[in-house]
Amino acid sequence: MTLSEQLQHKINQKTKPLGSLGRLEKIALQVGLIQQSLAPVINHPHIIVFAADHGIAEHGVVNPYPQSVTAQMVLNFINGGAAINVFCKQSGIQLKVVDAGVKYDFDPALPIIHASVGKGTSDYSKGNAMQAQQVHECIDKGRKIVADLHKTGCNCVGFGEMGIGNSSAAALILHHYTGLPIHECVGRGTGADDTLLLQKQKVLQEVSVFHHLSKGTHNAEELLSRIGGFEIAMMVGAYLEAKERNMVIAVDGFIATAALMTAHALDEKVIDYCIFAHCSEEQGHQHMLQYFNATPLLQLGLRLGEGTGAALAIPLIQQAVAFLNQMASFESAGVDTKKI
Fold first, then answer.
1. What is the pLDDT, as a whole number, of residue 62?
2. The one catalytic residue among 206, 231, 306, 331
3. Is the pTM value of this prediction over 0.90?
């Protein structure tokens, strides 16, 4: 039998009706295939939050909050006051925060990963957001962060983000890869009202025309250089490295999935390592899930980011592995199987 067949047989022989653990059975199978093992384990799960600023956000044309909030939230992460801190602590998940390119001078002594590529990207309504060299640097740094984490024994990771204006970049990535009109890709982000939402759609439509995004002809690295954020590009590298290290990846919401779309354009096999945590209330995220033909684990009405959905889903992945390894089989428990 193939490994897939052996795993399915092991799942089917547990003391339960066939398929009665639903999605948990599929997760157990997937994790076993990722780890190439009949007895997979989840070791030292982590959430990595990548933070960076976006030049488009400086003028407040696409975001209700000032750009300064990005740095303030990073400090909040460090102080343990954000939702992601609470969820990680509750579930025993380790949290790492990365300065990928925040427009702020953090104290080098702060307990974050200092990987800044610049003080925010350039305004992509006027030119490219990043230079090609910066894109490569971001991807390389994202890879290194995950490689270093893997060396500590971590084999399960989720990626989160913080960056005022990054839902706009994510909407443009969705628009580019799917060809959907801007108004179907753009949501309220951090809470845009109706007036700001219409303005956001107008500005991003102009950006699409300026960068020829609707044609879907840019390769992944060129797309990142045109409209990506440092944190999104760094997540791309992180996804690719996690796949290379055979790590289980819990995929968070709108921005994290935009980064995955870009990583997928570079390596289609990355999707085999991904478990989609939840469906965000940000309307574009539903289109992203459809793009991947993915069914998320949770439907909680979240639209926060930070990796919060991934943190909530990782315990379910752990439960799937636990039943596979610890639940009795019909034979070991002396329970009769069904007659027909």
1. 87
2. 306
3. yes
| Active site (annotated) includes residue 184 | no
Residue 204 lies in a domain: yes
pLDDT at 208: 96
pLDDT for res 215: 79
Residue 13 is part of which domain span? Answer: 3-40+325-333
Are 156 and 257 contained in the same domain?
yes
DSSP 99-155: EEE-SS---TTSSSEE---SSS---TTTS-SS-HHHHHHHHHHHHHHHHHHHHTT--
Helix ranges (H only) for 36-116 are 68-78, 83-91
- Within this chain, do residues 220 and 295 fall inside the same structural domain, yes or no? yes
**Tens-digit pLDDT profile for residues 70-124:** 999 999 999 999 999 999 999 999 999 999 999 999 999 999 999 999 999 999 9
CATH code of 231's domain = 3.40.50.10210
* Within a domain: 57: yes
